[in-house]
Amino acid sequence: MNTLLNSPQLKSPQMISRLLPLAVVCLLFNALHATPIRAAKPGQPVVARVEMQFAKEDQVVDVIAKGDLLTVVEDRGEDYVIVTHDGTRGAVDKVNAVELAESTGIYSELIEENPDEGRYHTLRASAWWALGEQEKAMADFNEAIEKGYEEAHAYSSRGLFHAARGEHEKAIKDYERALELDPEDITPIINRAAVRMAQRKFDAAIADYTEALEVREGNAGLLRQRALAYKSAGQMEKAIEDYDAIVDDNPEDVAAVMGRGYIRFQQHNYAAAAADFSAALELNEKDPVAWNNRGYNRYQLGKAKDALADYDRAIELAPEYALAHQNRAWLLATTEDESLRDPDAAVEAAKKACELNGYGNVSDLSALAAALAAQGEFKEAVGWQEKVVESAPEDAKTFASKILDRYRAGKPYIADPIAAEKTEQQAAEAAAKKKADKENAAAKKEAAKRLSEQAEKEAKASGLEKAE
């Protein structure tokens, strides 16, 4: 699930909010050059170890305070190109910026220097969280709020931490407090929706995403999240409407095209699903998932040859793609097209899928059993299908058991074993009836013949001739 994070508003009274060309950073304090330097990746936050000034043509244009969060734009070796919270762009030496997980000491110093300033507790909380120290992070957030730091982002951020710990009601309480403090910020609404998705309260999540969309009308990210909520709630057409809105606005949004295709597959609208995955491939022909998904829907449409080609392409692009190997195994083992059926290759593909998933995926094991049955190796097929029955979820155990019965009877996999069993029973009953009718007719004929012979004997004994 995608959650929109809410970062603290790191404003300093010394910070000048303006966009500037790349500037040179002048140090106000000496840095500890002996400290090992780790490189942050673009997009990652780093923390200012010291106060710094942005200068242009010998004139100070902006100031970075110690402890300010900076976003890395580019790693240039000795320094980072960074952007401040307010959008100022510049360069800082790596020695003067540390990764978030390494910044607890910086914030501890700031807390000692400013004991009544709750904001630094929220910043150190983020650093503790980055280190995996959840309890210390929560303690800092709580202390910040106890010190009277009544900022919306403090509650919103603590709500994120509660949500990550599975403390859903506490998270919602914090998000709602954040909304009271700053009704104009819809981020807590979006994050509350994510919690409600985790709680499986899909209608409530839909309502939250809808409220957020009233502010950010047409936002693709929110439409995508609401589509997922609609899908989870079983409102498939509503989900498709949201994906349609995204694609209408941006036909190259491949994620929306793929998402819509998956819902159409779930609706058994295989032709429309295959069309969506074809459209996705036009946008990104290197996507193995799109190849696999189109292949599966083509197979449902009876296009086994095209489906096999799609699976092969998916595997060519991603040789470790277990699901593509599994789907390929099913096709080769069960297709009605005898020119494509290849039990030996099916067993090989199924074993590859099993190996990739450590023989822990029940669908892989089911495919292996089906492939072995197609190969005529029913004893092995029974062994693997028994494992399938053991591992299958409750709503699939009946089906798995019916397939196991077929393998024990020396019969291959079939998609509808109950219907097949009924058909086979009806055929057996019809054959038995036909045999019985034939035997009855023969018995009647034999009885009639005997009666005729007996009557003839009796007539001769009485001196009468049989009438012709």
TrEMBL record:
Keyword terms of this UniProt record: Repeat, TPR repeat
PROSITE patterns (alphabetical): TPR (PS50005), TPR_REGION (PS50293)
Coiled coil residues, start to end: none
Cited InterPro entries: TPR-like_helical_dom_sf (IPR011990), TPR_rpt (IPR019734), Ycf3 (IPR050498)
Compositionally biased intervals (Basic and acidic residues): 431-468
Source domain of life: Bacteria
Signal peptide region: none
Residues covered by region (Disordered): 429-468
TPR repeats, residue ranges: 152-185, 220-253, 254-287, 288-321
Protein name: Tetratricopeptide repeat protein
Organism: Rhodopirellula halodulae
